[in-house]
Amino acid sequence: MSKLYPLLFLMLMLVSCKSDINIENEEQPNMAIDFNFGSTAQRNFHGLVLATDGSPVSGATVTIGTKTAQTNNKGIFAINNADVKENFAYVKVTKAGYVNGARTIVPTTGNNRINVMMIPATTTLMIASGTTSTVALPNGTKVKFDGSFKDESGANYTGNVNVAMFHLAPSNQYLNELIPGSFLATNSTGNSRIMETFGMLHVQLTGTSGQKLQIGNGHTAEMTVAIDATQMSSAPATIPLWAFNETTGIWQEEGVATKVGNAYVGNVSHFSWWNCDAQFPVSTLNVNVKNSTGQPLSNVMVNIRRVGQTYDVHGFTNAQGLASGLVPANEILEVRIYNNCGTLVYNTNVGPFTAGSVNTIPDVTLQSAISFAIQGTLKTCSGANVTDGLVNLKFANTTNFFQTLTSVTNNGNFSFNVVGCNNNQQFNLEGIDLTNTQGSGNIAFTGVSPITNLGNITACGSISEFVNYQVDNQAVQQCINGFQANLDAAYFGITHIMSPVAGNPFFQFQSNGITSAGTYTTNFTVFLSPNIPIPAAGNNLTLQISQFGTVNNYVDFTINGTYSESVNGVPVTRTLSVTGHVKRDF
Question: What is the 3-state secondary structure (H, E, C) of 237-286?
Fold first, then answer.
């Protein structure tokens, strides 16, 4: 079975273990690396963020360079014109209650697809400081603590410690989506490397008040990480130990782990993601994929493995049919492509390539694969082309959580070029008109190869939730679907999970003591940008709630008036108008 990896083809699997290096803080030094990042460039990204159970993670904050967006109610996001490097883009995903997600890729000039699976930060076991404790998982992975802990200020911590552990095995179907960053690393001498993993472990320590903890100064913890059964015979006696640097998005070599029985064992002085990996010099590989008529195929998963490696890593082709990524130098590589039913449709060997080289192999033509060019035009209720829209395509009956593709409309037109399983491939499609907050609903259809022309798709169904607002005479900003509206005692808040097209608006509302319909001029705050509050206090804003529904019913409200903001140190009075219709979650 093939296991898929990040867009950089960055090869090989993970395993966490221990190091003898004394690192006292979560923030590691940014070690030098000889990797060629290239010049600054602007690139476009879209993606899907799911939890480990396959459910969408809504309201997650996605950061690429200086740009941010939030996932919508389906876990989708898009960021355009993000400042990245030609050969390196670092995508960060955060949400309270989850382990931070991250992805690094070699970005192409097309629209780059990002898949991230987030791990719930669930307590495995509560232990006490001052005493030796072992926290174990069912597969034998475990961590032994000596009882010494510190808080973020470096002060000694006493009390109960919540330990959340997650072992990421190389055989995990979603290793590619779960791994932080990619397999790009810098070794102890500052050389860039591609890693091949034998397992990975994430450990998170928190105190009784939720504060982050680390191992105490001068102390270590012993980690034992189970080795995948299929890798037992190839697992070396000792292996480099790597820690993920959340600042750089690159793994750093920080010690050595030793094979003891069916596990790797070592000692670490801080916690983050830990990885026991073999290392290889780096080269770049470009793969162009076309169908039998020479048309580029998008969203094709290109799998790579070093000859002798147990599992694949992967990348996806962009709209131009190009997948680009980092691979081990000086190794013969297998290139594999499967259709969406897991049937192998292409297989060849390439390389070896010299370290630091950029290599483009001859075009990959999928002669026997069944491809579908799915196209159409998204229309408004009045029959006009949707100028600001989104179309989602999903393979019916798929067993892979990430088999959802997204196309942003171009003056109403949308297209997908995909590889199917058979001539009767079943699909589900949904179009959304972001401007008029209306959608098409789910449309099930059977693909026709080579071209499936769906004609006009009308987005005329009502959107269940929305908040529209206008500042001064600027364009009306429209937030649709994907809201969290919660009443907790006297606190009532509304958060919009930002629309999945870059540049769409942010909206958040917070209040205290507002629990019913009525007119209010105090005790509430509006956010039109993250971390920039517009409070009722000191401004002239009126909140009118015409309906305050119970759980699973709607809250209808308006906010009107003026507020003051500082522009280059000069106070400016703005006019604000907000209309909202959102459903209460609790």
Answer: CEEEEEEEECCCCEEEEEEEEEEECCEEEEEECCCCEEEEEEEECEEEEE
